[in-house]
Target: Helix-turn-helix transcriptional regulator
Amino acid sequence: MALGKDYVTQECSIARALEIVGERWTLLVVRDAIYGVRRYNDFLVHLGIPRAVLSSRLRTLTEEGILEKRRYQETPPRDEYVVTERGAALWPVLRALGHWGREHIDGHRLRVFRHADCGGEVEPYGTCAACGTLVPVADVVMVPGPELDSAPADPVSRALLRPKRLLEPLETGPAHLAD
Amino acid sequence: MALGKDYVTQECSIARALEIVGERWTLLVVRDAIYGVRRYNDFLVHLGIPRAVLSSRLRTLTEEGILEKRRYQETPPRDEYVVTERGAALWPVLRALGHWGREHIDGHRLRVFRHADCGGEVEPYGTCAACGTLVPVADVVMVPGPELDSAPADPVSRALLRPKRLLEPLETGPAHLAD
DNA sequence: CCGGTCGGTTCAGTGATCGAACCTACGGTG
DNA sequence: CACCGTAGGTTCGATCACTGAACCGACCGG
Model:
């Protein structure tokens, strides 16, 4: 639970939402999942989150239907966490948060989101600046901005340096190739 | 700090934003401030938040320029916390969160947001269903939905039962009249 | 057999939150 | 003046969550 029994008394959809995604780290896990991160270790190195907390968040998000745990190979058994439709529906929240952080706190353009169909930039409210359509999350391409560190330490950040369509799985490649 | 030193390592506007508004209770305080709550005691009874935590959150939000502490009477000295432009800019985040909570978790239409100019409903992405304009937060009127409790216990919730334009101060009235 | 990877769990220490109690400054009443 | 009530806090012990490190089991390759 994000805020315990106290939130339950609140008659408010915002409080309901925060009960589920308001805990520390949770929205960053969802952000990474939408960026295409799917594997336990990739979340771990990219977020720098304690293992116990990551396990707890992945379990909660799976129980809430925001992620789906999926066996992608049998020997050795390996699971991946794939964002569901319910999870992808959090994209507008994350986009709004990122826009607020960029405009009011940070000031840097670390990443740019573009409409895959026409290349137009996705505006703060989710519409394409070029063609005006409301861009669904699956049609968003994330492009690294000019102020993003060009040589990050972890392989996940390196993989995210390439332009990438949201929701599609991230290819981090074998560890021995990343060095 | 919302998530401590760990977030600092993240090159991401979302992480930047969550450092500030990602702590427990913080977004609910901002929500109430946008709803027009301004006084310490009103936050207290409406949120059911521990006093020490409320004091801490109000201080942090003031330091970050999201709220502004303002002396509104001298004897006895009384301060109010008014949401700033930076704070009001979080409205799209809260609207998106509320929409997600309603669509994917709760299912109830507890409150409806309408465009003050034309009465059209504000859609998930912030545009007016009737006239199509992107509705600024100051032009949003909050109307209680049919499923909202019609006789809440605390005076702030009762004051919020009346249709109310966002950002305008909430009139809770004297305590002895609320009974 | 040995080392490495992946996906965890367990555990002690620390920090945050909670709820209650307390405090200050003032105003009103008798 | 004594006393009560309100507004806006602070302080404090108990509890809960997070942190970081260690550990573990299943598997693979050499």
